[in-house]
Amino acid sequence: MTGVVSTFELSREVERIAAAYTERRYSGPGNPTGAEFLRIGDVLATKVRFVPDNPFMNGVHRLEDPAHLPAVLEFYAASQQPCWIDVVPYAPTALTDALGRAGFRPVSYNSAMYAHPVPATVGNDADIVVIGAADRNAFLDTLNVGFGSPPAVLEALRRNQSFWTDVAEWRLLLARIDGEPAAAAVLSVNGKHGYLASASTLPRFRNRGLQGALIARRLELARGLGCDSVSGQAASGSQSQCNQQRAGLSLVHTKCVWSNKE
Q1: Residue 122 pLDDT > 80, yes or no?
Q2: pLDDT tens-digit profile of 199-211?
Q3: Which whole-number Å values give the CA distances from 178 to 76, 127, 181, 218, in the listed order?
Q4: Which of 75, 131, 163, 246 could cross-link 28 (Cys pair, CB 3.0–4.6 Å)?
């Protein structure tokens, strides 16, 4: 793989793909999570009222023009919720100035990675399968517990996410150790592009290379499905970012997440 040249055009495309996955994730048949969406041009804002403190479900993506900020603020103010706004490095300083005046502050940083063509990876011995409806609950419980969800909410999450196995563009992967579910991940295919979406590992199985194995398997799947590029996102400096870069993805940009949560 040759090195990726990071441009604003590439950055915008990577963000578009990530936003498309986010919208699909929270807009299942019958809208089981009660998600609300605001779209203004390229901007996507998502809101889920029963989890107002969840930054993933209450996030704003692809916002560049500060003229759109008042409508975004009104969207969340209607339910008296905070929100989290991705600020990409090519956003104008007028946007950060406006966010500061509105009571927002930087709270975290995320990195976007990309590769073209899809990197080849070394095989691994992990037991990883692409699951269907029969293994849906095992996959969802593994993914959600890996993200820190308590047992009390797992049944509701299963209902809300039951449509995931019906999304034609997604591949859901489950890694097992000695037959026991241990880690899970999603590959989302957007045209000829593969997006390394949600992934987590159960606490007792961490530090065993499962996320690296799941990345390798998703890259293999992406190539088999005709993808000529892949991308992924992760908290800046995290193990997830390191795993993606070790697999051959290059850093495209680092973005700052601003929030008005007190």
Answers
A1: no
A2: 999 999 999 999 9
A3: 46, 9, 9, 21
A4: 163
Euclidean distance between CA atoms 37 and 47, whole angstroms: 6
58 class by beta-carbon count within 10 Å (0-12 exposed, 13-18 middle, 19+ buried): buried
φ/ψ of residue 43, rounded to 5: -75, 135
The domains of the chain, with CATH numbers, are 8-111 (no CATH), 127-227 (3.40.630.30)
pLDDT reading at 125 higher than 80: no
Cα–Cα distance between 118 and 116 in angstroms, integer?
A: 5
Q: Tens digits of per-residue pLDDT, 104-117?
A: 999 999 999 999 99
| Residue 1: per-residue pLDDT | 42
Residue 228 neighbours by CB distance under 10 Å? 14
Q: Which helix (H) or strand (E) holds 183?
A: strand 180-190
Nearest to 87 by CA among 261, 254, 260, 255: 255
**Cβ contacts of 74 within 8 Å, gap of 6 or more:** none
